Amino acid sequence: MDLNQLTAHELLAKLNSQETSLKAVMDSLYARIHKVEPKVNAYIRRQELKDFTGNSTSGFLKGLPITIKDNICTEGISTECCSKILQGFRPPYDATVIKKLKESGATIFPIKANMDEFAFGSSTENSYFGVTHNPWNLDCVPGGSSGGSAAAVANDEAIWALGSDTGGSIRQPASFCGVVGLKPTYGRVSRFGLIAFASSLDQIGPITKDVQDAAILMGIICGHDSKDSTSVNQGTPNYTKSLHGDIKGLKIGIPKEYFVEGMDAEVKVIIEEAIEKLKTLGATTKQVSLPHTDYAVAVYYIIATAEASSNLARFDGVQYGYRAQSDNLIQMYKSTRAEGFGQEAKRRIILGTFALSHGYYDAYYLRALKVRTLIKQDFDKVFQDFDCIVTPTSPTSAFKIGERVQDPLKMYLSDIYTISVNLAGIPAISVPCGFTKKGLPVGLQIMAKPFDEEMLFRVAHAFEQNTDWHKIKPKI
Amino acid sequence: MKYQTVIGLEVHLQLNTKTKAFCGCSTDFGKAPNSNVCPVCLGFPGSLPVYNREALNSAIKLALAFGCQIQEHTKFDRKNYFYPDLPKNYQISQYDLPLSRNGYLDIHVQDQPKRIGITRVHLEEDAGKLIHEANESLVDFNRTGIPLLEIVSEPDLNSPQEAFDYLTSLKNIIGYLDVSDCDMEKGSLRCDANISLRLQGAKELGVKAELKNMNSFKGVKDALTFEVERQTQLLETGEQMVQETRLWDVEKGVTVAMRTKEGAKDYRYFPDPDLTVFIIDQSLISRIKKELPELPQEKVARFVKEYGLSEYDAKILTCTKKNAEFAEKCIQVYPGKDKKEIVNWLIGPLLSEANLRKIELYELKINIKELINLLGFVQRQEISYLSAKIVLNQLIDSQKSTHDLIREGNLQQISNTDALTQIIETVIQENAKSVSDFKAGKTNALMYLVGQVMKKSSGKANPKVVGELIKGRLS
Fold first, then answer.
1. pTM of the full predicted structure?
2. In A, which residues are within 8 Å of B82 by CB distance?
3. Which residue from A169, A149, A168 is spatially nearest to A159, judged by alpha carbons?
4. Among A116, B2, B119, B395, fewest CB within 10 Å belongs to which?
């Protein structure tokens, strides 16, 4: 196997024993990127990938590179949310997660991962830099919005990566690309430096080749941050301790509302087999109910767009990014935003502005907040009796590029199983659990109570160690 | 008067915290443009606000001083609108759960106390400053994010003078709390006024105008006075009134219509998801309550009770906290029983000296011990009151003692009969008319003669002794 195909923990072992060098790791990554990127487009601004001149190899990560989604601020490296409106924006600061990674000895990969503009999408088709292709089938989408991060990891163009998840943007592409993706508990990872989509839902999380890498990465990026008022002080656990493989006696809830009409028949079978596997490992499963599931998508698209409409107001051409030429202020605002934002961004800004408008606020935004509380209470209730909840990550495997672009509602429904987790603020992980007949990966989603990421690692790791799905590589 | 004037004031007050409301930037005034800035107050992508405890405590302190109820739960909301001085295009403010509500401020109207309601006090962030030049507009973000308190009064004020008194009293109290510079010229205190007129006894409010752009308390009063006139004329001529925002033009002394409010602007307020709801617990409130300084009204009452001052004198001395502290120190150091003696000096000659120098009373550089020595000289009749005022003038900004100054100026009062008799003889010879007037029973003539002696002695003669001597000489 080439070095770029290894996991981070495998590479760390080789680097520590001086079996290989950081230069060799970088060379293998570069070679892979040069070979496959013209077909995949997982990275943006590829032409800016300069020769690797070496980096500090000190620290626990020994200079190991990490790929970063384009909405996480990296000092001196352009961070544009794959939007024209942030053209040329190089943040003068690092996001807290980047700072922590650097302190642990990581190399921040010099080009960023593709994504849907401002994380608005489930297919990475809404990127100013063009669509990313799914490495398992280049005609398919990689999922989104962290499609670039997931495709790069799946295709061995990255060792591991960071994504962000507002309604499924880490887990759904992880599922579509056959890799591991974790959305931490809201407040577990600092949002400082993450360019906000929906502030009350956004979390940064790992996208990796296996569960152990996810546990290592989470251990580095988690923790309270005084720069983020919504981050919670719950310490920084050693998540690798949860990777012991024993899930005997764990009680797993299977929500009946997630196994209904709309789910692909093949996906259903694969998920059922995965659940059987967990049983053979000693867990018990029982059907549970999350009665407000049906409202999740509606609630999500009101809250998320409302927050987004305000968060994106700052992109006005005054201080940074793209500015349309104009001889008066109002026209400059209008032209800058008309030319700078893509169609989906505009759709969501309009939706959110509407939801917050006088006369509609109570009927939409306020009501959505109330239902959000009900959704959260559904989970609280189930977690009184169960250790975790298992569901499919997405109702289907990766769909064809262009298939859903004209039908936003259908596109929004691809997040139907992931959205509730963000609304409730709980953590969830997606692990590879099988392939469709056409050879597309399917992901299993595991959810746990707030700040119980250990449970996710424990169950996901046990499942992974008793299956081989994560070892299968796409052939490009 | 046919019409009743109804005024409500909206005051914006910059808090004098060391750092901004939601980031660690300095709040220093007068720095080079865009030097007190960081990614947070510039609203850079990915930056997040973290609220400043000090600002919150100052806000609670002020709200408590105005008798407001502090809300147990409070939160910040986003007020969304586009403007180039607002980097995020929303202002972090407070909407439906302000920090505090239902306070009051007492003023005096024709010597009768009047209570003015304070609707709410809430915390928000200031915007930047636009500078318009011939061909371009520039923006300075130093002010962006400075903590700002909005203090909204009830429409309880019924004349421009009441509005002026409300502001004066507000500033006075805020000065005591030491939470703001309250400088309208520097913009640390800004005031907008809502004013409408209605027939006396009418229940419904008239059509209001919102006045902006006043940059002094007097400006507020003048603008309101102009508005009362303008609106009275409109009502008298039966013209249609429109609700509008009007700008005060201080040069021309008129208000000018800026824009017509066609309805409430939609700011799309919603809770800021970057800042969590915070709970103000009772222990914090009682701690801040304990830290509250003695406020002007309480101080006046105490000065009257403890030092036997008249309310009038006490009010003059307590108009600012620092003056009050200076005055109290003088009163306490003064050994005499009748504190009125030192108080008369404070609000008399000392205040004049301060006014002359265009400074506050407490800013006078004077050694209090020497001041009290000076009073001793006067009381022992060793120098005249006139001479004492000369010494006082020299005592300020000087290292010299009262004793030295009196000696150097040769100002010792002449009570010595021999020395005085000589001068008196001369004066009697030179003023035959006054002498005969006195003898004819005109007491004013004696005063004149004493005055002449004082003049000849360069103010050093003891007028009491002189009077006695003249009376004895002419009887």
1. 0.89
2. 313, 316, 333
3. A149
4. B2
One domain for residues B182 and B140: yes
Say which residues have a Cβ less than 8 Å from residue A318's Cβ, sequence separation at least 6. Answer: B84, B87, B139
Q: Which domains does chain A have, with CATH numbers?
A: 3-291+373-471 (3.90.1300.10)
- What pLDDT does B234 receive? 93
* In a shared domain, residues B258 and B243: yes
3-state SS assignment for residue B376: helix
- Using a CB-CB distance cutoff of 8 angstroms, which residues of chain B are in contact with residue A193? 46-47
User: Using the beta-carbon criterion (under 8 Å), do B276 and A229 form an inter-chain contact?
Assistant: yes
Q: For residues B404 and B425, state if they share a domain.
A: no
Distances (CA, A) of A435 to A283, A355, B34, B122: 23, 40, 56, 57
Q: Given CB atoms, is B145 within the 8 Å cutoff of chain A? A: no
The answer to whether the CB atoms of B87 and A318 lie below 8 A apart is yes
One domain, residues B177 and B33: yes
Write the residue in A89, A307, A316 that is nearest to B273 by C-beta: A307
Say what the ipTM of the complex is.
0.95
CATH of the domain at B470: 1.10.10.410
The model's confidence at residue A220, banded by pLDDT at 50, 70 and 90, is: very high
User: What are the tens digits of pLDDT across the range A348-379?
Assistant: 999 999 999 999 999 999 999 999 999 999 99
> Does residue B194 surpass a pLDDT of 90?
yes
Is there a single domain that holds both residue B308 and residue B258? no
Q: Which of A28, A104, A127, A145 is catalytic?
A: A145
Residues B398 and B429 in one domain: no
Range of the domain at B469: 417-474
Number of domains in chain B: 3
> For residue B270, which residues of chain A lie inside 8 Å, CB to CB?
306-307, 310, 356, 361, 365
Residues with Cβ < 8 Å from A456, sequence gap 6 or more?
A182, A388, A427, A428, A429, A446, A447, A448
In tens, the pLDDT along B288-325 reads 999 999 998 899 999 999 998 888 888 888 988 889 99
Same domain, B267 and B320: no
- List the single best residue of A79, A192, A226, A229 to mutate versus B (max B Cβ within 10 A): A229
